[in-house]
């Protein structure tokens, strides 16, 4: 094994181009587990810790450019207003020690369906900034996950940052596990209201081979909200609409039975989380409306 | 490969380090610092918690090569670290935590050996003894490092704060109640001392 320690991003890209099998390591919270347990013996480890740009973020007009190695702790502390869904998801990642090291770049690189960041990224809307010596490209998050622990990165590409849309409305994240801390998701659900475009986006974790959006559920809810004038009148969402949304979210799952839970439990739990996160976000939207437009 | 870094204020050099080796292995097997415990090797248990440039991390998940030029504090250096911090005014300014610069300038003084023997105890260590928070003791080093860091950041923690800060440290003996007592005790003593 060789340990490559590029001092700059350009050096890292050159190293990855020269050794496409090199495994990038930043927080190490996934890679080191595999090495410790002899599940993986990469020829090259590519340490990204010396590249300080990767731990920085920029808040722009429309989106936040989040460096690939910004630890979850920093997202919770500094980006709660701009990225509420991702901040909530970050808070459910493992333990303080892990959150101090791990970041979204690693979650995307590993591309496990159980990664906590994915539902929040799918719901908010995001693009992955991937780069190689050949150039840089932005991969829409919906096209990023290609299979169980597979993503659309080329062998010579590294993740530099994620561009996540700033919240224009309430966002929520919910996760089922056996306890509060140190838990891998049995399944997870992210939901974001986008009042500016009058749309709702979702993200489902651990209930399909990849993280997925519940697109049919989104389309149904968008139409139902529009039809009932809900965005304008700020009424409580009718229980039948919430129920149908939950059913469609369950239907978007394609889960398996495993040690953490059965497929039917996962489908059921995703439906419950869909209904709850919809209620939470909608109540928050109605509250904000009352504040800005006065009580009716 | 060779790795140069600072442990408990002293420059250290580890030779013949395997590229896939963890910081934990280097500390325990190459530098003779067995205080950080090796249990799960997957970041679940927190018994290997150390501070890397001031930040609590699981040493089993840090590749040895990643600590080149950086600063590590282990449980062996905790008493000195806490003493140094107390002498520099603690956290009264509100600017809590250890800056990278402070962490790098930190140096062990007047100890008998690098194992921490002959040094007094850190307040958190004394509190663990006084509260009876140590049973088999295997999780204790990680808990001490994590709890000490929390009290540095947050001198008046609520029970929820304590639980959150220690949520990455597993203890199979105590049921955590005595550990909670110990951290509350350390916080109260810290408050009295100011």
What can you tell me about this protein's structure?
With 296 residues, chain A is of the alpha+beta class. Chain A has a domain at 172-293: CO dehydrogenase flavoprotein, C-terminal domain (Enolase-like, domain 1), CATH 3.30.390.50. Chain A has twelve helices and 13 strands. Chain A has helices at 9-18, 31-36, 72-78, 84-91, 96-99, 104-110, 117-124, 141-144, 215-227, 230-233, 239-251, 263-293, and strands spanning 2-4, 23-25, 44-47, 57-59, 63-67, 126-132, 135-140, 145-147, 150-151, 158-165, 171-176, 187-194, 199-205. In chain A, the strands form four sheets. Chain A has a five-stranded antiparallel β-sheet with strand order 4-5-10-6-7. In chain A, a hairpin with a 3-residue loop joins β4 (57-59) and β5. In chain A, α3 (72-78) crosses α4, α4 (84-91) runs antiparallel to α7 (117-124) and α11 (239-251) crosses α12. Chain B is α+β, with helices and mostly antiparallel strands and 194 residues long. Chain B folds into two domains: 3-73, Beta-grasp domain (Ubiquitin-like (UB roll), Roll), CATH 3.10.20; 78-193, DNA polymerase, domain 1. Chain B is 37% helix and 11% strand. Chain B has helices at residues 23-30, 78-87, 100-105, 123-131, 140-153, 159-165, 177-193; strands at residues 3-7, 10-14, 49-52, 55-58, 71-73. A five-stranded mixed β-sheet of chain B has the order 2-1-5-3-4, sandwiched between helices. In chain B, α4 crosses α7. The A-B interface holds A 1-3, 5, 25, 27-29, 31-33, 35-37, 41-42, 45, 47, 49, 94-98, 100-101, 180-182 and B 1, 18-20, 22, 41-44, 46, 49, 55-58, 60-63, 65-66, 68, 146, 164-165, 167-170.
């Amino acid at each position: 094994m060789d340990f490559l320690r590029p001092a700059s991003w350009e050096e890292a890209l050159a190293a990855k181009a020269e050794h496409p099998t090199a495994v990038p390591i930043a927080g190490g919270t996934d890679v080191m587990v595999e090495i410790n347990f002899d599940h993986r013996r990469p020829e090259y480890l590519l340490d990204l810790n010396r590249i300080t740009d990767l731990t920085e973020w920029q808040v722009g007009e429309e989106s936040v450019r989040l460096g690939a190695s910004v630890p979850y702790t920093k997202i919770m502390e500094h980006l709660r207003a701009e990225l509420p869904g991702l901040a909530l998801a970050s808070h459910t990642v493992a333990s303080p020690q892990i959150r101090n090291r791990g970041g979204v770049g690693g979650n995307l690189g590993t591309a496990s369906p159980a990664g906590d960041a994915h539902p929040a990224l799918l719901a908010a809307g995001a693009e992955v900034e991937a780069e190689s010596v050949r150039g840089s490209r932005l991969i829409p998050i919906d096209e990023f996950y290609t299979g169980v622990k597979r993503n659309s990165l080329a062998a010579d590409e590294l993740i530099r940052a994620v561009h996540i849309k700033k919240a224009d409305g309430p966002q929520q994240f919910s996760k089922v596990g056996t306890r509060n801390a140190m838990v891998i998701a049995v399944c997870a659900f992210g939901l974001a209201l986008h009042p500016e475009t009058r749309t709702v986006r979702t993200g489902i974790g651990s209930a399909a081979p990849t993280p997925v959006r519940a697109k049919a559920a989104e389309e149904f809810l968008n139409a139902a909200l529009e039809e009932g004038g809900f965005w304008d009148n700020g009424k409580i969402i009718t229980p039948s609409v919430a129920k149908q949304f939950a059913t469609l979210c369950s239907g978007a799952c394609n889960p398996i039975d495993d040690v953490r839970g059965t497929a039917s439990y996962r489908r059921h739990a995703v439906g419950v989380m869909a209904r709850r996160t919809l209620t939470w976000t909608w109540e928050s939207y109605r509250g904000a409306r009352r504040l800005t437009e006065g009580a009716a | 490969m060779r790795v140069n870094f600072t442990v408990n204020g002293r420059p250290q050099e580890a030779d013949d380090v395997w590229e896939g080796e963890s910081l934990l292995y280097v500390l325990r097997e190459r530098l003779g610092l067995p205080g950080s415990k090796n249990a799960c090797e997957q970041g679940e248990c927190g018994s290997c918690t150390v501070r890397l440039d001031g930040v609590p991390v699981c040493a089993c998940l840090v590749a040895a090569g990643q600590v080149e030029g950086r600063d590590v504090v282990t449980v062996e250096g905790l008493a000195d670290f806490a003493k140094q911090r107390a002498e520099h005014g603690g956290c009264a300014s509100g600017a809590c935590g250890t800056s990278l610069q402070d962490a790098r300038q930190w140096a062990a003084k007047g100890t008998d050996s690098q194992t921490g023997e002959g040094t007094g105890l850190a307040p958190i260590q004394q509190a663990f003894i006084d509260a009876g928070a140590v049973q088999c003791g295997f999780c204790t080093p990680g808990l001490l490092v994590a709890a000490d860091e929390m009290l540095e950041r947050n001198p008046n923690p609520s029970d929820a704060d304590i639980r959150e800060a220690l949520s990455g440290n597993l203890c199979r003996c105590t049921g955590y109640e005595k550990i909670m007592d110990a951290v509350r005790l350390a916080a109260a003593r810290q408050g009295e001392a100011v």
